[in-house]
């Protein structure tokens, strides 16, 4: 049971895949009406927990409307006052039958929004994954009116008007307070542009057989949703009782400048929180005392500086070269004057995380040709602005973040982590992890620096264990977000500065592990 729920929690589907999976269930003999009844019953049970007794139900022409009508009928039978709004004249057969029966029970059905009496909440069953063209005219107008209402709106499957795959608004879309996603997570739930419409998201599992999911998605689905179980299986815990510090990885961080000293500290604190065995931090010479005072256990490498206070070149300790490190993370706070350093680490064959100015310098060097020459594995961690600078010829991530990150990884051969409310990580061959939960508290200067150090530290510890790099990166993203969520719970969304975040990294993980 645990297993099935764990697997279902990771699955993410497109509208086409959902239709194929649904097709297999129907072909195997499940009557369409029975499935609708089952799903409607599950939604009703959740709706009844919401409270209120006067309900407006928005009913569309397809099976999303059919689901809504089952809920309307069940609520009516349980003593709720129910009104239906449906401005359509033609319905799919099953939906039409449900509407007829609902009306026979005395549930009023209105075609005009003004006729709907005041209700405690609204159920949105206008369109689900069958929406195929933009919503226009009077229906778009009505949706915009519903959005101005104060009452909570509960959407069935997906807020009506949201594209199931890209998350874009097709003409007009319901802004839901809560959305009950049916059966399997749809891609739109992880596209930043849809999040304000989806509200609180909840999966209603209606027992889709695992074999049908596998038959359509394959044994290694392309897009997966990160889960706690997955993250815990990747973390380097428990440690072997006989390990020594060099077996727990050696991370080299290259970061900071006189102008951006704090970025170096935050990156290093992120690296430290990963538990990495040995931490070396290369910074401009003048930052060395500052870093030593914050991280007494790390080896701080002071490097010659440019006139502007950037690292001029790497000056590693004697008998050390880049091959001494299990992973390198480079970029936060470097400024654009540290080009030589980025060239040097690009030429090494070490696992490399590039972030911030490291990415901006890579963009100047020419992202794709430079990466194609690299011997080792590379992780890029851009936010949207850096992404566009790195990949100016690829589709704009604002339109479809998942497709954009997939295209970037394929074109560059790097593992690309695109930051956002729903951070997505793609492997060059198209495998994607999505981090499903985060907090706007993390939209704050320095929080990305912490992530870079953390991912570097995890990679240094686990890279040699055969764990796929994208799993390690996704675990870092998950851990970082969970620390932000816990910190925001305890300190509000205003209380999660990047330094505080580094302290919550340990706190959150000890809660999971114990
Ligand atoms: N996948 C599954 O296994 C299940 C799906 N169910 C429900 O079925 C839904 C999908 O049902 P459908 O395929 O009937 O699709 P929808 O109910 O999403 O809507 C399709 C209908 O809307 C019309 N339409 C599409 N775009 C329009 C537009 N812009 N303006 C006006 N009309 C438009 C279409 O002509 C069609 O009649 C799901 O979202 C879910 O709610 C559930 O009943 C049970 C199980
Ligand atoms: K809907």
CATH architectural label of the largest domain: 3-Layer(aba) Sandwich
Number of domains: 2
Strand percent estimate: 5-15%
The first-level CATH class name of the largest domain: Alpha Beta
Q: Any ligands, ions or cofactors bound here, and which? A: ligand NAX, potassium ion
> How far from one another are the termini?
23 Å
Q: Give the integer mean of the pLDDT values.
A: 95
Helical stretch tally: 19
Could you tell me the number of beta strands? Answer: 19
* Basic shape: elongated
Which range best describes the helical content: under 10%, 10-25%, 25-40%, 40-55%, 55-70% or over 70%? 40-55%
What does the model show?
- This protein has two domains: 221 residues, Rossmann fold (3-Layer(aba) Sandwich), CATH 3.40.50.10260; 270 residues, 3-Layer(aba) Sandwich (UDP-N-acetylmuramoyl-L-alanine:D-glutamate ligase).
- Helix content is 42%, strand content 15%.
- The protein has 19 helices and 19 strands.
- The strands form three sheets. A ten-stranded mixed β-sheet has the order 10-19-18-17-16-15-14-11-12-13, with helices on both faces.
- β11, α10 and β12 form a beta-alpha-beta unit.
- The longest helix has 23 residues.
- It is elongated.
- The site of potassium ion has 11 residues, from β5 and β6.
Overview in brief:
GO terms for molecular function: ADP-dependent NAD(P)H-hydrate dehydratase activity; ATP binding; metal ion binding; NAD(P)HX epimerase activity. The chain is α/β, with parallel strands linked by helices and about 525 residues long.
